[in-house]
Design a protein that fits this description.
This protein has 6 helices and 8 strands, in the order E-E-H-H-E-H-E-H-E-E-E-E-H-H. The protein has about 230 residues and is an alpha/beta fold.
Length: about 230
């Protein structure tokens, strides 16, 4: 058995009921945030947006709201949101939402500071696979759904409609969020299917390692407790 592994998780995680109310006490990675949410209404109607805005104000942080992210985020919306961040002088991102928002945040963080097009930096498909030129914007993530772990992940899945591609982007350590808020209270108003689906994702993801011998020691040791918790 291969017992070697390289495990790197630098994200500061605030976990527990009511933890969103502690956001304003944390050290923010910048002075003006791009507050990224979906183009839907859940963050607004649940009160999560208002609470996040209050916490940023408590921390003395300016922000602009970008409510453009849709399901299966596209290259075009990433580039548009990155341009919005540049125009408004944002020096970090607060991503408030589910998988689409958190995935988009990774790509927007990169393109808000780097030249060219997102696909210049995508590895695979028609991407050019170039390395990032500049350090991306720091990210603070606040998840409104449970299950994928996107709030501490430095990858995002982005679609490109003209080439019919849907591909992962990221992987560099600088794209790992610096702070993640995981507050179960924020998920009470989420439709049950959006809680059940990630739970199934967790179970099948952990179970798949039973048939994969290349994971090293750490994942076999973690997968059964993780499945029980799910």
């Amino acid at each position: 058995m291969n017992t070697n592994f390289d495990f790197y998780n630098p994200t500061h995680i605030l976990f527990g009921s009511g933890k969103l109310d502690e956001l304003g006490n944390q050290q923010m990675p910048g002075k003006k945030a791009l507050l990224l949410i979906s183009d839907g209404k859940s963050a607004k109607t649940s009160g999560a947006l208002d609470r996040t805005q209050a916490q940023l104000e408590k921390a003395g942080v300016e922000y602009v709201v970008c409510a453009k992210i849709h399901e299966n985020p596209t290259r075009e919306i990433v580039m548009e949101s990155a341009a919005f961040a540049k125009e408004n002088g944002c020096d970090f991102i607060v991503a408030l939402g589910g998988g689409a928002v958190l995935d988009s945040s990774v790509a927007i963080a990169a393109m808000a500071t780097n030249p060219g097009d997102l696909w210049d930096y995508v590895n695979g498909g028609t991407g050019k696979g170039q390395p990032l030129v500049n350090k991306p914007l720091p990210q603070v993530t606040i998840t409104l759904t449970a299950g994928t772990g996107s709030e501490i992940n430095n990858w995002g899945v982005i679609s490109r409609n003209d080439t019919h591609e849907k591909i992962g982007f990221g992987g560099t350590p600088e794209l790992v969020p610096v702070l993640a808020v995981v507050d179960p209270e924020l998920m009470k108003t989420v439709p049950s299917k959006y809680t059940a689906s990630p739970a199934c994702f967790c179970i099948t993801g952990k179970a798949s390692f039973r048939n994969f011998s290349g994971t090293g020691l750490i994942l076999p040791d973690m997968k059964m407790p993780a499945m029980r918790c799910t």
